[in-house]
Design brief:
Elements: E1 6-15, E2 18-28, E3 33-37, H1 44-52, E4 59-64, E5 67-68, E6 78-81, H2 93-104, H3 109-117, H4 133-145, E7 151-155, H5 163-178, E8 182-187, E9 198-203, E10 206-211, H6 213-220, H7 225-239
Parallel strand pairs: 3-8, 3-9, 6-7, 7-8
Antiparallel strand pairs: 1-2, 1-4, 4-5, 9-10
Helix pairs in contact: 3-4, 6-7
GO molecular function: ATP binding; ATP hydrolysis activity
Domain ABC transporter: 6-229
Keywords: ATP-binding, Nucleotide-binding
């Protein structure tokens, strides 16, 4: 039996003497879409950095695809798409993909597949700096798809996209999961939670819930996940 895609135990991260993340324990099964949701500043990006192995931990462990997070053996198996597009603005879309394909050592034909997947096949000759913010983000995603990663980590990938593009991206995410890729997708938009197999809800550096959307609705007797989230944080607000 395969180990979970991500297994986190007792995770604690400190910054400036203050706990940014405190006491995280969870697992994410392979081939699923896990949504990481919470307001801006709640620690989502810090948790993502811990998973991809670029964050110093104060305590605990993070295992990814059976190896410690950040292990050299994970470099071609894990792809991370940051909030800010991580591509070269002075190169064309195609040149960016050629460069990253060469770095990753993957076949050139994957460049066309990646651009087709993110809906930018007709913009391959455009200089990235002339594209919109949402389009630059999709170029970053295309570069991440080149290695056909087993784990795809996406930090707020739909920010700034119109509803049609958001829908198309989520269709792509589901296609990737159906093919066996595990996705961790962070967002602060609660309606995207309904598109996930499982949810991690964060608040103020803590893990508020780790469950399926249907179970969260049942637990809170809410009609939608935004209401469910609000019902879970109301007791915390009163206690504070």
């Amino acid at each position: 039996m395969l180990s979970p895609a991500i297994h986190v135990t007792g995770l604690r991260v400190q910054r400036g003497g203050r706990a940014v993340l405190d006491g995280f324990d969870f697992s994410i099964e392979r081939g699923t879409i896990c949504g990481l949701l919470g307001s801006s500043g709640c620690g989502k990006t810090t948790l993502i950095r811990s998973i991809v192995g670029v964050q110093r931990l104060a305590a605990g462990s993070v295992t990814v695809l059976g190896e410690p997070a950040g292990s050299p053996g994970l470099r071609s198996r894990v792809a991370y798409v940051t909030q800010a597009p991580s591509v070269y603005s002075d190169l064309s879309v195609a040149a960016n993909l050629r460069y990253f394909a060469a770095v990753l050592g993957v076949p050139a034909w994957r460049e066309d597949d990646a651009l087709e997947a993110v809906g930018l096949a007709d913009r391959r000759r455009d200089v990235v700096g002339t594209l919109s913010g949402g389009q630059r983000g999709r170029v970053s995603l295309a570069c991440a798809l080149l290695s056909e990663p087993e784990l795809l980590v996406l930090d707020e990938p739909t920010v700034g996209l119109d509803p049609v593009l958001r829908r198309d991206l989520w269709n792509l995410f589901h296609d990737l999961a159906a093919a066996g890729t595990t996705l961790l997708v962070s967002s602060h938009v609660m309606d995207e939670a309904e598109r996930c197999d499982r949810l991690l809800l964060m608040r103020d550096g803590g893990l508020l819930a780790d469950d399926t959307p249907s179970n969260l609705l049942a637990r809170t007797r809410a009609r939608d996940l935004e209401t469910a989230f609000l019902r879970m944080i109301e007791p915390l607000a009163v206690a504070a």
